[in-house]
Amino acid sequence: MHNPENSLSQCRSLRIGDAAPEFRARTTRGEVALSDYRGRWLVFFSHPADFTPVCTTEFVALAKAADKFAEMDCALLGLSVDSLYSHIAWVKAMKQAFGVSVDFPIVEDPSMAVGRAYGMIDETTQDSSSIRSSYFIDPDGIVRAITTYPYNVGRNVDEMLRIVAALQRADRDAVLTPEGWRPGDAVLVPPADTIDAASDMAEWFCRTEER
């Protein structure tokens, strides 16, 4: 794996608002660099290991939802410490067992360099058994949301789609999205910031609006 200058020098876990560390690595779809996704949204997610039951259900579900992510101009990119050849064998096995093609790339990370740069793996750990992290990266390469699950609990693909949609909606219209928001729901507008503006509104601090 080729690491450009300063690309994988992250010494702490990534936080919302950080630039996602650049890397270049082999994947099931050829060599990929993070910068290849600049200009569109990206969900970059890790999994503990190939050929494991929870990870298999996640990848099958993500493959089935790939068109929904694409409709939002959002790409998918997976990663684990397993080798490229293990990834290829797993993709073939999922196709044979479930009839589902995993067409998005899966990064190999046997040195755990990418996982450690992103905070997916602790600097001192010798394996990746605790990894199940997702990074929602905007078109400028900035981390906008992060989710992390334990190895024995699977992610919710509908929630991953919802996070992307909510981030895009908030950016596009300078609004806030309330609890449980889904596309088509009312949004929240910024609260009134003066006494005069708030005087005629009982709900000045929490206002919804159809847009």
Walkthrough of the structure:
The chain is α/β, with parallel strands linked by helices. The protein has a domain at 24-155: Glutaredoxin (3-Layer(aba) Sandwich). Helix content is 28%, strand content 18%. It is built from six helices and nine strands, in the order βββααβαβαββαβαβ. The strands form three sheets. The protein has a five-stranded mixed beta sheet. The protein has a two-stranded antiparallel ribbon with strand order 1-2. It has a two-stranded antiparallel sheet with strand order 8-9. A hairpin with a 6-residue loop joins β1 and β2 (32-33). The model is unreliable at 1-6 (pLDDT under 50).
| CATH structural architecture of the domain at 24-155 | 3-Layer(aba) Sandwich
Uncertain runs are: 1-6
Instruction: Give the end-to-end Cα distance, rounded to a whole number of Å.
Output: 46 Å
How many distinct helices?
Answer: 6
Q: What is the topology, as strand order, of the major beta sheet?
A: 5-4-3-6-7
Over all CA atoms, what is the radius of gyration?
A: 19 Å
What is the level 1 CATH name of the domain at 24-155? Answer: Alpha Beta
Percentage of residues in DSSP E strands: 15-25%
The sequence of SSEs as H and E is EEEHHEHEHEEHEHE
CATH superfamily of the domain at 24-155: Glutaredoxin
Summarize the main sheet.
Answer: 5 strands, mixed
Q: Using the alpha-carbon principal axes, give the shape.
A: elongated
Please describe the structure with a list of short key phrases separated by commas or semicolons.
single chain; 211 residues; alpha/beta; Glutaredoxin; five-stranded mixed β-sheet; two-stranded antiparallel ribbon; 28% helix; elongated; disordered N terminus
